[in-house]
Amino acid sequence: ADDTGCYAGAGLGWGEISLPRSKITNGLAAEYAAVGAPLQTWSAKTDDSSIPWSVFVGYRVIKYLAVEAGYLDAGSASYTGRGTAYVVADDLVVDTRADLDWSASGATVSVLGIWPIDATWSVFGRVGGFFGDVSSDARITLDTVTGKGSVSENSNEFLYGVGVDSTFLDQWSARLEWQAMPSVGNNNTGS
User: Fold this and answer.
1) Would you say the pTM of this structure is higher than 0.85?
2) Residue 110 CA: distances (Å) to CA of 32, 71, 134, 159, 171
3) How far apart are CA 117 and CA 113, in angstroms?
4) Phi/psi of residue 55, each to 5°?
5) Nearest Cα residue to 165 out of 110, 104, 119
């Protein structure tokens, strides 16, 4: 709550990981066709909501500027598809299913520009970076055969946000903040 000095905190929130459903479906259709089992029917759904959490430490250099470092678990998202595929070699239509899961977590470093409104309230903007790991897990079942795969890659991304801070009891404050990362991951894990 002081104008300068060290502080620490934790956060919990609601997040959304935007999964490109049509791009994933098209990629899966190409993979099925490549192994000689083109899709005949397909329906898919995504669960984009996540519960991110974080811990952080910061140093307020002056009352208008702070730096923070922390750990962010951005949560996870999933894609589920079901349908039928035509197995060319056996001249047979079989049931198939694909379950894909993504998650991201890692270190964050940010600079906060702070505008104190009064002794209790301030607004701030954040710019920084996310230096973490993106994991993608896949499970695909074609008739009675199931294949599994997993990919994990480093991802360094731009991070930004805006928020409001309210100080209470002299030593405590509460934040309401919106944060975003334009894209996390790569062609191997999906982004």
Assistant:
1) no
2) 43, 11, 20, 8, 22
3) 13
4) -135, 150
5) 119
Residue 25's SS3 state is: helix
Q: Can you give the pLDDT of all 191 residues of the chain as single tens digits?
A: 457 899 999 999 999 888 888 989 999 999 999 999 999 999 999 998 999 999 999 999 999 999 999 999 999 999 999 999 999 988 999 999 999 999 999 999 999 999 999 989 999 999 999 999 989 899 999 988 999 999 888 889 999 999 999 998 878 999 999 999 887 766 655 55
Q: What is the largest CA-CA distance in the chain?
A: 75
Q: Which residue, chain included where needed, has tokens 């899709």?
A: 39
Tens of pLDDT, residue by residue over 97-147, are: 999 999 999 999 999 999 999 989 999 999 999 999 989 899 999 988 999
Rg (alpha carbons) of the chain, rounded to whole number: 22
The single-letter code of the amino acid at 9 is: G
* Cβ pair 157, 181 in contact under 8 A: yes
Record the tokens describing residue 164, joined without a space.
């409001």
106: left (phi over 0), alpha (psi -120 to 50) or beta: left
Length of the chain as a residue count: 191
Burial class of 102 by CB neighbour count within 10 A (0 to 12, 13 to 18, 19+)? buried
> What's the CA gap between 62 and 188, in Å, rounded?
42
Are the C-beta atoms of 177 and 162 separated by less than 8 Å? yes
